[in-house]
Amino acid sequence: MRCVLVLVLFVFFSAPVWADPGAADVRVGNDLYRKGKFQEALERYEKAVQKNPSEAKIEYNLGAAAYQSRDYDLAIEHFQKGLLTDDDKFRRDVHFNLGDAFYRSGRSREDKDIEQGIKRFELSLESFEKARSLDLKDKEAIENYEFVKKELERLKQKKQQQKQQQQKQQQSQQENKDQKKDENPSQPDDQKSDEQKSQDQKDSNSDKQDKENKAEDDRSKNDASDKGQADQSQQAKNQAQPGNPPNDQNNSASGQTLEGQISSQKDANDMMDNFERNELPKGLLNFIRRSGEARPVDKDW
Known about the structure:
With about 300 residues, the chain is mainly alpha-helical. The chain has helices at about 5-10, 15-20, 25-35, 40-50, 55-70, 70-80, 90-110, 115-135, 140-185, 195-240, 250-255, 265-280. Mean pLDDT is about 75; it is low at about 1-20, about 240-260 and about 280-300.
């Protein structure tokens, strides 16, 4: 790759240029550039462009000095401003140097940001293509175009390889995780995630509540069964006492019982109601029915 820099040495040689504002700074800048003092030359060109901001050739010299200082992005900025001219020959040289600056900028980004590197290679191709279109016999522009084209393909392949490598690494990491999970199916509590611990606690609480509910249901059923059996036993004792002959009507009302056994909770409730109506002493105070709520009596005794 070669950067066309000859204009920086002769674009201001004609008399009209020297008469322009900033000509003295340009003359000093050119001298510094020839001595290889590119940063000092850049400062002189900046002073000149402040005095004559519409002069495209000063912008070109600024771009050339920035390029030699390896500040390729700054060189691109000034070369692009140098395109504001109707001189096709001059614009051809600007496009050539712009293509070179874009390429160098892309190379500097290749390892850090390959996407930006690819974009600058593409802009480099466009610049060399424009330089070639302005001079079809420009062999250097043609050679540089072909060179950057190959470099662009190389960079795209590199990007694809990096992508495949990342996918392999991700796949390998996932396989390692799965293998560790198979080897250690149950993790200790201190290795579980907070979310997993929270879910385990919820499941434990739910199981505990289910057990408590089941135990409560069992106690209710046992209490009801014991109550029914006690009522049946009391009825049998009352019927066996003298003066209490068997009550056919009561037996008929509880006809769903067989040989003194209660077949359901409803039968037990019916039997208890019948017992309260017919067997309890008359005038008993403060009797509380099972199905009702406790009510206070009117007096204490």
